[in-house]
Design a protein that fits this description.
By secondary structure, the chain is an all-alpha fold. The protein has 19 helices and no strands.
Amino acid sequence: MSPVLAAADVAPAPSATRAVWDSPLYRGATVALFLSGLGASAAAPQITLFLVDDLHVSLTTAGLYYLTSVTAPVAGYLIGARSDRTGRRLGLFRLCAAAGFLGWCAMALADRAWMPFVISAVVLAFAGGAGSQLFAAVHDDLRATASPVGDGVVSVVRMAMTAGWMVGPVAGSLLATAAGPRAMLVATGVCTLAQIVPMGFARARSAPPVAQAVTSQRVGVRGMLPLLAFTALYVFVYAGEPIKYGYLTIYMHDDLHLPTAVSGAVIGIQPLIELVLMPVAVVVARRTGMMRLMVLGAAFGVGANLCFALTGSAAGMFAGQILMGGVWGVFAGLGIIVAQRLLPAAVATASAVFMSSTAIASALGGLTGSLGVGLLGLPHVFLAPALYGLVATAGLAVMSRSRHAVG
């Protein structure tokens, strides 16, 4: 055997973690997305408290804040279309990060009840495009280099955002208590802008211009029905998140009288469980099938919301969040893969449809929370997302037994 062949035989398998560390682009994107998750998760549980306590809006009106997310798909489409035409992923990323900084600082200075709603709908909608541009830049580079560990690199980068969501709620809760919610909102803006720093002057490989033919037209609406059905069920799973972030903190603070550190830990434990379970879900799905595992994930969501609605204790809140970590350990890692496999002839269309559905889910959850807190009160408003979860569980169970089941 020649020395070259012998060396090839003993060469270590490429490592996704090593690939991320060795690449300034991947390494910078990982740190940037951690900062993105840190800032967003610090603010998410505190927004309704800020609206209620500082701007003196009602709980019902505060719940409507999440309806402002309906503008995000439009902003995302405009940013994505511009990015595909020019290939300037990182330039748009920096602009989106700057918009986020300005939006959160303006939110901190708001002195009228309507101002956070307008700022969120108009400015922060574009800020959300920063993360998508980083993923696009990483994708372009992986494709250009034909990396054998491409999926692993994307997984490591995605897990960094989850790690940020693990730390952010506790940090945001402590900062809001120590310095006030306005200072916390400014800190969120700083985190958003700071995403630019780890990227430095990194340059991504330009993506080729998109083809003019629209793939989804070839597929047709009938061919998209399985994807649309799956996405609709995902919306029902996700709709509980804005209700939880809108009202769980208030419930723990005003009704259960939990210490700030405890309520922050309750919010923060979910992304920790999610982070641990994401790689496990990929392994388990190979044995059970992705769709079948998602049935279990959706059922976890039902159990989580029943814990929030019925237990009335710190232990129940922790149990609910642990179950919710199981939900997102499954869906965060596998959802986009399932969507793409349900429409293999138009993967980009599948990705866009699936990823934009979170904004629709946020709007549904915000409306449900706003109406439900007036009709049912706290904590029984969480029975509504439990019902949504039942619908999603049943629907996914049906799909898992159909010819559209994804293995």
